[in-house]
Design a protein that fits this description.
- This protein is of the alpha/beta class and 350 residues long.
- Among the domains are: 75 residues, OB fold (Dihydrolipoamide Acetyltransferase, E2P), CATH 2.40.50; 160 residues, P-loop containing nucleotide triphosphate hydrolases (Rossmann fold), CATH 3.40.50.
- The chain is built from eleven helices and 13 strands.
- It has a six-stranded mixed sheet with strand order 10-9-8-11-13-12, with helices on both faces. A five-stranded antiparallel sheet has the order 3-2-1-4-5. It has a two-stranded antiparallel sheet with strand order 6-7.
- Helix 4 crosses helix 8.
- Its EC number is 3.6.1.-.
- One of its GO terms (biological process) is ribosomal small subunit biogenesis.
- Pfam families: RsgA_GTPase.
Length: 350
């Protein structure tokens, strides 16, 4: 029988335990996905680390998932996720890509150079808010600017309740301020563009160099990809931290609630629009556009809000259509297979 107290160091919580049947409570082995490759999962149980081959019949996994194994370390089932980060797959693919699961806190790393971008930050915040995870904004490379407060004010202008922390990713003394979120059993994901300092931050928190790092290109302030896979790493504090590859393209999908939470000021203003279906374009009596005219709302913020809503609607509709097509195709295959068995049965009788 599993010692659930030992599992807590891996992030086990009552949310997962209450999903177990009596038989699973006594016989199944909970395991957490700590690394993922194309056809292999690396998982950790209360007593050991092992690998599992991914079969076509299995569900889609992502780092951070909890699953159940039998006594022979064979996959039984995937537990429901408490939180999940996902996006539309990059490029022209009509596909949903899972980023991570069962996260407690998201460190969003922003570099204080030409790569600093409020529109991109709002995109990350929408992703995090949709997952209902606490966002912490970390300002890296603060040595490149003279006035950090200017950047802090811009971010707090998006939401005065956001926690913003300038941090030197190379300095362990600077990262000590993150201790309140690095408690034993907590799981943290680090998000941000390439080259902003995510891997450097993780190496400092680990106290050793496990993640590859690379500087931002000086000619255009763009980053280089150094992390190419997602891995869940244990910290000395007892927390677990997940690095993610730099994502220059984060296409939102099924993220309407996250966008609404990120732009709650605009959502509140929209309640006073004359028309309930106001699109905040040129409709008469639009309280949102009036706020822009009065200087209470930035045009940039409204434009990004409308852009993300449109993007999410298009991607969500495309993915919903793809799911319906896949479901119909699956039914066709099953029907065809069933018909083939019937014909084979007739042939054998003849």
């Amino acid at each position: 029988m599993t010692n659930f107290a030992l599992l807590e160091k891996l992030g086990w919580q009552p949310f997962y335990q209450q999903q177990l049947s009596l038989d699973e409570w006594e016989n199944a082995i909970p395991a957490r996905v700590v690394d993922q490759h194309k056809s292999i999962l690396a998982v950790t149980t209360e007593t050991e680390s092992l690998t599992i081959n991914i079969l076509p019949s299995m569900p889609n996994f992502v780092v951070g998932d909890w699953l159940l194994l039998n006594n022979e370390n064979q996959f039984l089932r995937l537990l429901d996720r408490k939180t999940c980060f996902k996006r539309k797959a990059a490029g022209t693919q009509i596909k949903e890509q899972l980023i991570s699961a069962n996260i407690d806190t998201a460190f969003i790393v922003c570099s204080l150079n030409d790569d600093f971008n409020l529109n991109r930050l709002e995109r990350y915040l929408s992703l995090v808010n949709e997952a209902e995870v606490e966002p912490i904004i970390l300002l890296s490379k603060s040595d490149l600017v003279d006035d950090i407060e200017t950047y802090t004010r811009q971010i707090l202008g998006l939401d005065s309740h956001l926690i913003v922390a300038p941090v030197n990713c190379l300095d362990s003394a600077s990262t000590e301020q993150l201790a309140p979120w690095l408690k034993p059993g907590s799981t943290i994901v680090v998000l941000g563009s390439s080259g902003v300092g995510k891997s450097t931050l993780i190496n400092t928190l680990l106290g050793e160099s496990k993640q590859s790092t690379a500087s931002i290109r000086q000619d255009d302030s763009k980053g280089r990809h150094t992390t190419t896979s997602r891995s869940l790493l244990p910290l000395q504090s007892g927390a677990l931290i997940l690095d993610t590859p730099g994502m220059r393209e984060i296409q939102l999908t099924d993220c309407k609630e996250g966008i609404a939470a990120t732009f709650s000021d605009i959502e509140q203003l929209a309640n006073d629009c004359r028309y309930k279906d106001c699109q905040h374009q040129s409709e008469p009596g639009c309280a949102v556009n009036q706020a822009v005219l009065n200087g209470k709302l930035e045009q940039r913020r409204l434009d990004n809000y409308l852009k993300l809503l449109k993007e999410d609607a298009i991607n969500s509709a495309s993915l919903a259509e793809k799911r319906a097509q896949d479901k119909a195709l699956g039914k066709f295959y099953k029907r065809s297979l069933s018909e083939s068995y019937k014909f084979k049965g007739r042939d054998s009788n003849n």
